Amino acid sequence: FASVIYNQPLNRAQDSCSHQCGELLGTCSCQATCHSLGICCADYNEFCLQISPYSGSLMGGKDFLIKNTALNTSVLMCRFKQKIITSGYVDKDGEAHCISPLLYETGFIPFEVSTDDGLTFPYSGTWLSVHHSKVSDGEKCTLVNETKWQYYGTHNIDGNLTLTWTHQALAASLINIEVWGYQETGESYSEKWFAEWKYLYTLARKTPNTGMFSFIPVPATANYNTWDFGILRITPSIYSDGQSNTPSIWSSAHALAWHLGEDFRNDPMAWATAKCIEWDRKEEKLPNFMEEIIDCPCTLAQARADTGRFHTDYGCDIEKGSVCTYHTGAVHCVRAIQASPQYASGQQCCYDSTGALILTQDSTGGSTPDRGHDWGSPPFMRPPRIPGFSHWLYDVISFYYCCLWSDNCHLYMKNRPSSDCRIYRPPRAASAFGDPHFLTFDGLNFTFKGQGEYTLVESDLTSLRVQGRTQRAYFPNGTEALVTGLSAVAMQENNSDVIEVRYSEDFNLEVLLNQKVVNFSEQSWIDLEGLFLHSTADQNITVMFSSGSGLEIRGSGGFLTLTVLLPEKFINHTQGLFGVMNGNTEDEYTFKNKTAMSIHASPQQLFEFGANWAVENGTSLFTYDTEILLNNFFYGQKHNASFVPVFFPYEDPADPLMKEMVSLCDSDPFCRFDVLTTRSLQVGNSTRLSHHNYKQLIENLEPVISCGWLDHPANGRKDGTNYLLGSAIHFICNRGYELMGSEERICQVTGAWSGDAPSC
């Protein structure tokens, strides 16, 4: 490992980081870990760039500062992905800047900088490209009363439109406002299907950069007024019309009702109806994506617990007051995180205040699947995988045609029916917390207090590996206790990026991406290779792998709490400390060589089982970037055999802590154990909360039986929209009709409805 090599006297010239950022060189390092190890090449800071801000919309045009390098030149070129060139400049204070480019993908994008007019690009860094809707509002210009822009020209909507922006964001006294349109051309689902943002025309020229612009829109000229989905760009007037990658402020992407032609304004309903019918015909020719999208969870509780596969839909969020514009009657919606394998489609699931799934068959506020996943999907670049915009083209502008600008919503719902939840299967959960207490996928619990690095779960199905590091706990007086707790968790699936969540030496929670600390100050959601990463404001970290497996990590009481969620396809495909996931607890203590130990083994025997799952250096996913980590875990034993923990804490009635412990922990054995072994009520309380959260999660993930949707009889109606076990649906005929068949049908444990289909 690195620091071994550098203890030899350096008798040759030191290597340079020019063109070498991220590499470990013969005499020194150009990797991010070099700082804390003290082994950076002398010119590391010059060539390996730190930037601020580090992220911006994929639409580009954002000015970012290069923080660590004084580039003595007046001509800067910035090159992204080794091919997209944008101009850079040096400001009056001598600081270097680049402008971000228009991209058709999200995630970390490598860039390089040249100071010799493009001959060489020795300086490098990464830029984070973000979904246009996930960028903070302050970075975009605002369509004041956005609904008015998107309904302009329909019934009774006319007058002025106003655009506002942060004028300091552009260093210019005069600006132009341009209209851009988005299109996808070529044959659907073929190699010859392309996405393009196209400059259309300039709406306002040489307007003062005051931060506000009002106008009365007129229909665009004939060659432009057929573009109905697009965006506005504000850029300094010194640039030519539609010039690419200039400093820009973009609006949100929106329906361009305000510039559509006279035919729309004269009869918006007829115009939109014709568009809706045309869309319906196109849909009939496209492949059916519904067959391959994941089923919705049956209940709101399941949907919010299955964090490896579903994530809050920001357009309808119970934690932000349930403002659900497109889903009346819903309190919360979630989206499937991964796009479907072949067609890159998305699923969306909405729930009412009782926690039941809302179906479009019953209400226009129901869950609608998406031909194009809203977040796009790797490898991006081409339809239908363009983040946000592919989805707009197939699923949103068509909603305007059919549902918002005309009364043809039945056509939209016919092409986007809700999935019910009859084939949804909740994931299985395992958890570790406190002075590590382990709860396996099959529900067995045990305590293993080894000190070292261990395999918590690995699977041959997707090469999933999750490793945990344990370190000694401390008593409140600062001396070491005879128990350990999780201090770091590292994970990878197939050839994905490697994520590590750890407590740093000063007890801050850190997330590392491929050995580099991740900064969440600008973005809380990051699209990575083979996974998505999310951090909440209070540092709950969620890792969502492409297989649908999810990990939640949070710091509590000085230790990490880890929960792993695995879909059913992992049954019989796991091993490690979390056991063999198969519904049978008898084989939980299975060693690497596939022999198993009795589940009635003593804590001392369990210590052997744990030691058997120690990680080896060759397969370790951890980052060893300090002397302490190197000495204790890299050169030291992976399992510290000389450390013998407390196996049974003694409950002494005369112990002054006993009374407080009993009132805090009640009968929770993990809480009692941790209070007595660490002498800390705070540690005990963290353990109690983690245990409670785990029990709540298991309850929320209980499978639910659904009998599927029931229609009302012709010439009659039904009462009830809940199709889960025990629900009753009643049928009533219109006046003058008589009911044949069952008046009431109840969802039974077999998953079938009682009685017979009614008719009137």
From TrEMBL:
Ranges for domain SMB come to: 13-52
Q: Name one Pfam family in it.
A: VWD
Please give the PANTHER family that the UniProt record associates with this protein. Answer: MUCIN 4-RELATED, SUSHI DOMAIN-CONTAINING PROTEIN 2
* The protein, known as: SUSD2 protein
User: Boundaries of each Sushi domain copy?
Assistant: 705-760
Does the record carry Transmembrane helix as a key word?
Answer: yes
Supply the SUPFAM superfamilies for this chain. Answer: Complement control module/SCR domain (SSF57535), Somatomedin B domain (SSF90188)
Under the heading PROSITE patterns, the entry gives: AMOP, SMB_1, SMB_2, SUSHI, VWFD
Q: Which UniProt keywords apply?
A: Disulfide bond, Membrane, Sushi, Transmembrane, Transmembrane helix
InterPro entries named among the record's database cross-references:
AMOP_dom (IPR005533), C8-3_MUC4 (IPR056619), Epithelial_Barrier/Signaling (IPR051495), Somatomedin_B-like_dom_sf (IPR036024), Somatomedin_B_dom (IPR001212), Sushi/SCR/CCP_sf (IPR035976), Sushi_SCR_CCP_dom (IPR000436), VWF_type-D (IPR001846)
Q: Which residues form a coiled coil?
A: none
Which cell locations does it reside in? Membrane
Under Gene3D superfamilies, the record lists:
4.10.410.20, Complement Module, domain 1
Where does the VWFD domain start and stop, copy by copy?
A: 428-621
> Does the record bear Transcription in its keywords?
no
Q: Which GO terms describe its cellular component?
A: membrane
